[in-house]
Design brief:
By secondary structure, this protein is an alpha+beta fold. It has one domain: START domain (Alpha-D-Glucose-1,6-Bisphosphate, Chain A, domain 4, 2-Layer Sandwich). It contains four helices and seven strands, in the order βααββββββαα. A seven-stranded antiparallel β-sheet has the order 1-7-6-5-4-3-2. α1 packs across α4. The protein starts with 11 loop residues before the first strand and ends with a helix.
Length: 166
């Protein structure tokens, strides 16, 4: 499924890319705060503090630079990533907490499913970005989606390159 922000009522993007790697190799990158920084296509994620996630409720800090988007003059700031879905080698999702109150409530995640293409075993990687449950304050502000669907597609390309290099 792939939604575009051009349609009224869209509140979630999902993009899929097949990768010629086992799910475990991909999951190792997306559960790791270093991996989040390495694969970010927006340029906002600069560095991190914390350990790879191992369960729902785990948290780590990502040091951000909003100037990469040039949309709001937030400059450099920190967010705390909280894992809300954690199924090893199958799915991981998180929400973000920061200085903005109330918390926004958007969710990012990856689903991994074994798949074979032309006789090569690999994984279908679905990247999703869901703002369907954002706080009403942010819904009324009309700022979502912050990132376009294209950013998710680009991140999947960077993810494939990153897994290949590890």
């Amino acid at each position: 499924m792939s939604d575009t922000g051009d349609e009224a009522g869209i509140e979630r993007f999902e993009v899929v890319r097949w990768m010629p790697f086992p799910a475990a190799a991909i999951f190792a990158v997306v559960r790791d705060p270093a991996g989040h920084v390495d694969i970010d296509s927006s340029g906002m994620l600069q560095s991190f503090t914390g350990e790879p996630a191992g369960a729902v409720g785990d948290r780590f800090v990502v040091h951000m630079d909003r100037e990469s988007l040039n949309d709001f003059p937030l400059g450099k700031y920190d967010v705390e990533v909280e894992i809300i879905t954690y199924e090893p080698d199958r799915e991981i999702a998180w929400t973000i907490y920061g200085q903005i109150k109330p918390p926004i409530g958007h969710v990012y995640g990856y689903r991994l499913e074994p798949a074979e293409v032309d006789g090569v075993a690999g994984t279908n990687v679905t990247s999703y970005y869901d703002w369907s449950r954002i706080d009403q304050t942010w819904r009324e502000a009309g700022i979502f989606p912050v990132l376009p669907e294209m950013a998710l597609r680009a991140t999947l390309g960077i993810l494939e390159r990153t897994v290949r290099r590890r």
